[in-house]
Amino acid sequence: MKRKDILGIKDLSRSELNELLSTAGVMRDMIDRSERSNALRGKNVTTLFYENSTRTRNSFELAAKNLGATTTSISVAVSSVQKGETLVDTGKTLDAIGTDVIIIRHSVAGSAQLLASTVRAHVINAGDGMSEHPSQALLDGLTAIRHFGSLADKKIVIVGDIKHSRVARSDVILFNMLGAKVTVCAPYTLLPEGMDCLGCEVETDFDRAIADANIVIPLRIQRERMIGGFLSTQEEYHSYYGVTQERLAHCADDYIVMHPGPINREAEISGEVADGEHSMILEQVQNGVAVRMAMLQLLTECQ
Ligand code: CP
Prior knowledge:
With 303 residues, this protein is α/β, with parallel strands linked by helices. The chain has helices at residues 14-32, 55-66, 87-97, 111-116, 134-148, 166-177, 206-209, 234-241, 245-248, 271-274, 281-301; strands spanning 44-49, 70-75, 101-106, 122-128, 155-159, 181-185, 201-203, 215-218, 256-257. Phosphoric acid mono(formamide)ester is lined by residues 53-56, 127, 136, 260-262.
């Protein structure tokens, strides 16, 4: 792979995507054998998160350590950002300190791009506003491929807060590249304009959308990004768009349920489904470490 940064799935070629997923598969086998490598020995990976995270931040840090790197974590709430330091100046400071890779999460779309254009270090986008979340889409792709083998013509339904979801955008682009048929489903208030331009079907009736699906991906309602009333009540939302055992009866026999997390039980997904035998939620988390190892290794190999 010959690129300095990974900012979005939309930037990746098919061969880069294949290389990332096949390397992630190798990393997953390594993790399963409790092996580590020294591929990143002597390098430093810094996480710079302006938004909360449990999965992404910790799995990037673990991935870096599994490859022999040192890690540094900037907690924005107790950093010089609180004294007015800009993103660009923070990036220049990290460059001067000598970090090799910056993993950034930010509430504003385009922040990772801005940082990448400013710093010498490699930059990985760990989620920018409502734009992209490439490592999440890659781990979703790896999880689906490890389960089904090929995704050609598999029906994937992404249901929930599509409007505010960077995961939905990255997932639609990635699953399309892998040959799947993707439908996004939400009430009108949570459907952004132009989703069909990404090459997916758009549906507001979840019972119609879920018929014969192979993969169902509920998304959390992102109240932290909402200004104004997009929804009535959680109960009403759950009754129309919640992923329940009853609704899943209309899927293909071999269906799986994935969720990027964090989940809100009895909102977008019932607890029974989240903990059920078709749920891949914790498998996704495990694959997240492998995918992030692959991203770090392939980026830093390219100097
Ligand atoms: N899926 C995801 O990005 O989770 P975190 O917010 O916990 O990192």
